[in-house]
Amino acid sequence: MGPCADQLKDLLCFYVPPSKFPEVIKKSRLPGFMSVNHRKLILPKSGAYKGDYGDMDITLLYTLLRNICGIKEHRAGWGEKHQASDRSVSANIERIRLARNQCGHSTGGLLSNADFNQIWSSVRASVMDLDLELGNGNKYEKEVDFIRHDTMDPVRDQHYRDQLMKQTIENQATIEEVNRLKRQTEESKQQVQQKIQKLESSLQFINEQTTSLQTDIQDAQFRISTVENSNIPLHIKKQHTKLLDTWRKEDLPFYEVHSFLDILEKVQSKQIVTIIGGPGSGKTAMVRHIALLLQTEFEIVPISSPRDIIQYGQEGCQQPLGLRGGSIQR
User: Where is the Novel STAND NTPase domain (predicted)?
Assistant: First the structure.
């Protein structure tokens, strides 16, 4: 009945504000059947009542609303059972009083479902009417609606609260475990991804090394094949290698003049090209420079006599034969 008591307190405040209560209560005639405790509360021996009605129960509130507020009594009269169709303020106050008495006088404090629903419906209708009288929307109607589904067993309430708290703790632990597993899975996923990237990098490096090794093997096989099939003795080849190293050093300051490209084109398209010029004009330097440019496509064979062509020339092999003095034969 908590919401009903609170609503009756608001109703008493509506008719008699707490600040005016001491003055009003002194001028009012109170019934002789009031309990000693109630009388001491509102009429202390010294001073005056200074509360806000929060310390009053439904019985005292009913007595005050009936006797000091000037509320018109319902058709059956104060203290009598109201008529079902009577929706006056006093009739609604009477309904709440009777509902309180019925609950308080029930055997063992227990009510059947039918009795409870009948009392609840009556109280709810009265609370709705009094909410309208107070102009506070549906404040107490909501609280009464909540009570219909509430329990009055404190032991069972505590049991359910304990179970709910236990379930909440278990749910929180489950959520934390799920989050931990998610983080662990994400970390494992990142580690696997990093390992895959390392493996891919290693595989790419191995492929590059394999390709490079295959190229080196092919070059070595080509050089071996060249040496095996060459008409040039190995010791002469070594001399040629040293000679070509000398050519490369001496070729560093070589400058290609305007006629160079024309001569290079003729060397690439003709079998024999003879470069003619005066002493010191650079014929030999020109021949060596061209031979070095063609070394990736040809085997360079330095010769000092036309007889070397017959001796070192090899059919089916690209060999620019550089003759000292300005002659090149392919």
Answer: 254-315
- Note the pLDDT tens digit of each residue in 254-281: 888 888 888 888 888 887 888 888 888 8
Is 306 exposed, middle or buried (CB count within 10 Å of its CB: 0-12, 13-18, 19+)? exposed
Closest CA to 84 of 25, 42, 125, 132: 125
Structural domain including 74 reads 2-152
Spacing of C-alpha 198 from chain mean position: 28
Would you say the pTM of this structure is higher than 0.85?
no
Same domain, 27 and 136: yes
Q: Residue 274: enclosing H or E segment and its boundaries?
A: strand 272-274
Closest to 326 (Cα-Cα) out of 293, 283, 285, 288: 283
Q: Of 101, 133, 152, at which residue does a domain stop?
A: 152
Provide the 10 A C-beta neighbour count for residue 327.
17
SS3 272: strand
Residue 171 covered by a domain? no
